[in-house]
Amino acid sequence: MEAPKIIKLNEEVINRIAAGEVIQRPANALKELIENSLDPKATNIQLMVKNGGLKLLQIQDNGTGIRKEDFEIVCERFTTSKLREFEDLHKISTYGFRGEALASISHIAHLTITSKTKHDICAYQASFVDSKLQGTPKPVAGNQGTIITVEDLFYNMTVRKKALRSPAEEYQKISEVVSKYAIHNSTVGFALKKSGDNNDIRTPPESNAVENIRIIYGNTIARELIEFSLESTPFKFKVHGYMTNVNYSTKKLQFLLFINHRLVDCQSLKKCVDHVYSTYLPKNMHPFVYLSLELDPGDIDINVHPTKHEVHFFKRRTDYRKYHNCSRDKIVGFKQFKSILHTS
Length: 344
Ligand code: ADP
Ligand code: MG
Description:
- The chain starts with 10 loop residues before the first helix and ends with a helix.
- By secondary structure, the chain is of the alpha+beta class.
- It has two domains: 11-203, Heat Shock Protein 90 (2-Layer Sandwich); 219-343, 2-Layer Sandwich (Ribosomal Protein S5, domain 2).
- It has an eight-stranded mixed beta sheet with strand order 5-4-3-6-2-1-7-8. A five-stranded mixed beta sheet has the order 9-10-13-11-12, with helices on one face. The protein has a two-stranded antiparallel sheet with strand order 14-15.
- Strand 9 (225-232) and strand 10 (237-244) form a beta hairpin.
- 31% of the residues lie in helices and 26% in strands.
- The structure holds adenosine-5'-diphosphate and magnesium ion (MG).
- Adenosine-5'-diphosphate binds next to helix 2 and helix 3.
């Protein structure tokens, strides 16, 4: 066989592939959009979803808004108001930092932005295709803040669209993301609505985590919660959270984990938690656990994957093991945790 010729893919194909890495399903797009609303300090976030997010994902916030003159580049790749220098990555306190979300969305959906800052007398609206602003932003009526409308997600990625689950399942994933963010950001009011239906999730602003757990997951869980709080100065970490006592159990473990306020997954921690409970709960039954972990940003790498779903630890292996043992003892386990379960 002859060696095949190497060619460079055209720009459009490259951008679409890259965008598909960041946005794998409607819930990922929504997570990016929620984070974009939390960064500019919104206190109210309203979401509207049609057809599992494939037909429509809309988010409205009351944050700072986007300046009219920034519309020109807001959807370009690597344009951000949050990061200036590479070194800043170590102390980044915003969710976003590399300006990829809006660019990605504009390559695989129809994107419209409406926004008003406190200095504008009206809002401005524009649509974007493949990162580029279409025409000039037009003045429209609107309140301070931003509305991002994402329509026909994956319209130009038929294979991806086919690989997705049913709209009902995609909606379920969206609703999980919203629930978790609403619990972790309980001072922000969240509302999630499926088109045509009433609000599916509604939490008031200035609420608290337990109240939001009650609103979203129900009183059966909320009334059995134990507050959990630990701090270690040498290891520079803090843990705070709520977990159910032994009166409550469910078939599927519910584990809400935030590390430095990012919603992440951690299989080992999940297993650890479940293991501790296994001695106390009926066979094959599991708890509800919400943990918020704060670590020195210098100790973790958030820049691992475009979805930012995974967090890596920077420290050398030995340090990591020390940390892990310490966290296992402190966070999930064993002595302290057991005594909490016993005394409640
Ligand atoms: P990043 O969040 O990494 O900066 P994004 O592509 O998600 O990148 O957003 C690009 C920029 O658009 C942000 O840095 C921010 O300045 C602006 N932006 C996006 N969404 C909002 C919003 N809801 N309110 C205010 N500004 C926003
Ligand atoms: Mg962002």
